[in-house]
């Protein structure tokens, strides 16, 4: 199955139809955002070749690439080739004869184990794009564009499905409910592959989703580990330890450093900027220079994996899926508390009624407010609590605790609200 992505497919199609020389498109996004499925959907009815880089040396990559282009276009080099860039050059020369699409997936600056191969591929593209009719699609991490300085390209940022897109998908499947949308959001992170698997296997209730996830050979168990190992390489242990702590609610750098017994500043920066896996959240109205912040894993499916799969590896290895389901059931509401706020903040943001939306917290726990949303133009202020269970929402306490904020919003109409799932 393939959902949504009409805008991205239209952009790619328009670029392909305009080919009179080589054209380049970059699909940028974090792991599991759907870059590969988008590229594969686009090329399914076209003369094309798809190649995904893996953690192999250049010679092994070259052998695999040659086999792919031999099988696809019956291209057989006249001599032995063990240099990937030479094989890429042969394919571009073939593309002088007809329009073809070339997809290079998992592209990064260190493919082949050094930074040399990526540079050679880019330089060969610069040499050949004017005299070939190839549409080159390169998919990689958010920073993949840094490899293509001085080259024109169509830039497409591929993100996980938004909440409104999840609503559309589940409505189309005739299984829409706000509760189910939240379960899909908090357990798949909006990642197309996981959504596809759940729908294909008829998982439209909490119990059906839980039972599909916690079973032998579950892709929810296996996929994330493989992707993250590929992403982090040899330093995966430190990255895994940091992400596990954040998934447990340990959201301050200093607290994580106390647990791990080491400085993690560089790792946090790479997780945030290079890998785009975590974000730093500041309190509502905090100064940019303020140091108060929390760390949150952007992708709910990754947070889920660290909280329930990675942390319970021994239960996975011994196939104790019944016990694992019990642990998940007991801790689910507590786990998803942070993502409840994110879920409802994203819903409000998609409604496009507020100029600023965030959460407020300080050293005083009694001053924490889950959602603060401001419409400056219409002078409206929304203050809200979130809880998984609607009957636990206490608006009287919200009004009492938020009085200190009102002095900054004199003349505003104030709405107090509560948002829950069940």
Topology readout:
Layout: H1 6-17, E1 23-28, H2 35-43, E2 48-52, H3 58-73, H4 84-94, E3 100-107, H5 116-128, E4 134-140, E5 154-157, H6 163-172, H7 178-188, H8 192-200, H9 206-213, H10 219-232, H11 236-247, H12 253-260, H13 265-274, E6 278-281, E7 294-297, H14 300-309, H15 313-317, H16 321-335, H17 337-351, E8 356-360, E9 369-375, E10 380-387, H18 395-401, H19 403-406, E11 413-420
Parallel strand pairs: 1-4, 1-5, 2-3, 3-4, 10-11
Antiparallel strand pairs: 6-7, 8-9, 9-10
Helix pairs in contact: 3-4, 4-5, 6-7, 7-14, 10-14, 11-14
Structural commentary:
The protein is globular, with a radius of gyration of 24 Å. The chain is built from 19 helices and 11 strands. Strands 2-3-4-1-5 form a 5-stranded parallel sheet. Strands 8-9-10-11 form a 4-stranded mixed sheet, with helices on both faces. Strand 9 and strand 10 (380-387) form a beta hairpin. It has 422 residues and is an alpha/beta fold. The mean pLDDT is 91. It folds into 3 domains: 6-157, Rossmann fold (3-Layer(aba) Sandwich); 164-335, no CATH class; 339-420, Trna Endonuclease, Chain: A, domain 1, CATH 3.40.1350. The relative contact order is 0.09. It has helices at residues 6-17, 35-43, 58-73, 84-94, 116-128, 163-172, 178-188, 192-200, 206-213, 219-232, 236-247, 253-260, 265-274, 300-309, 313-317, 321-335, 337-351, 395-401, 403-406; strands at residues 23-28, 48-52, 100-107, 134-140, 154-157, 278-281, 294-297, 356-360, 369-375, 380-387, 413-420.
């Amino acid at each position: 199955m393939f959902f949504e992505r009409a805008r991205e497919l239209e952009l790619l199609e328009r670029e392909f139809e305009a080919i009179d020389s080589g054209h380049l498109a970059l699909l940028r996004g974090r792991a599991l955002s759907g870059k590969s499925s988008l590229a594969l959907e686009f090329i399914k009815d076209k003369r094309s070749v798809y190649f995904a880089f893996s953690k192999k040396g250049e010679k092994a990559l070259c052998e695999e690439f040659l086999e792919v282009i031999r099988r696809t276009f019956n291209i057989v080099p006249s001599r032995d080739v063990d240099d990937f860039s030479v094989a890429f050059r042969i394919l571009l020369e073939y593309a002088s004869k007809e329009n073809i699409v070339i997809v290079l997936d998992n592209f990064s600056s260190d493919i082949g184990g050094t930074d040399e191969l990526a540079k050679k591929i880019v330089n060969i593209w610069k040499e050949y794009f004017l005299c070939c009719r190839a549409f080159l699609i390169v998919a990689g991490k958010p920073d993949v564009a840094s490899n293509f300085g001085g080259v024109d390209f169509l830039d497409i940022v591929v993100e996980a499905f938004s909440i409104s897109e999840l609503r559309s998908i589940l409505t189309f499947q005739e299984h829409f409910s706000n509760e189910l949308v939240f379960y899909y959001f908090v357990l798949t992170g909006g990642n197309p592959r996981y959504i596809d698997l759940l729908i294909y296997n008829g998982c439209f209730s909490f119990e059906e989703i839980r039972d599909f996830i916690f079973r032998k050979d579950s892709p929810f168990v296996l996929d994330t580990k493989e992707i993250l190992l590929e992403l982090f390489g040899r330093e995966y242990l430190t990255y895994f330890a940091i992400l596990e702590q954040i998934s447990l609610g340990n959201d301050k750098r200093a607290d994580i450093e106390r647990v791990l017994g080491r400085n993690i500043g560089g790792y946090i920066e790479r997780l945030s900027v290079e890998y785009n896996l975590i974000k730093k959240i500041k309190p509502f109205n905090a100064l940019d220079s303020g140091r108060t912040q929390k760390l949150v894993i952007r992708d709910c499916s990754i947070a889920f994996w660290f909280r329930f799969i990675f942390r319970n590896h021994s239960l996975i290895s011994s196939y104790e899926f019944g016990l694992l389901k019990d642990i998940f059931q007991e801790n689910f509401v507590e786990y998803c508390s942070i993502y409840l706020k994110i879920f409802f903040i994203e819903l409000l943001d998609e409604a496009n009624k507020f100029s600023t939306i965030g959460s407020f917290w300080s050293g005083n726990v009694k001053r924490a407010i889950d959602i603060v949303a401001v419409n400056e133009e219409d002078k409206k202020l929304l203050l809200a609590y979130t809880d998984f269970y609607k009957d636990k929402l206490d608006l009287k306490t919200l009004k009492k605790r938020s009085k200190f904020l009102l002095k900054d919003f004199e003349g505003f109409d104030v709405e107090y609200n509560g948002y829950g799932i069940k």
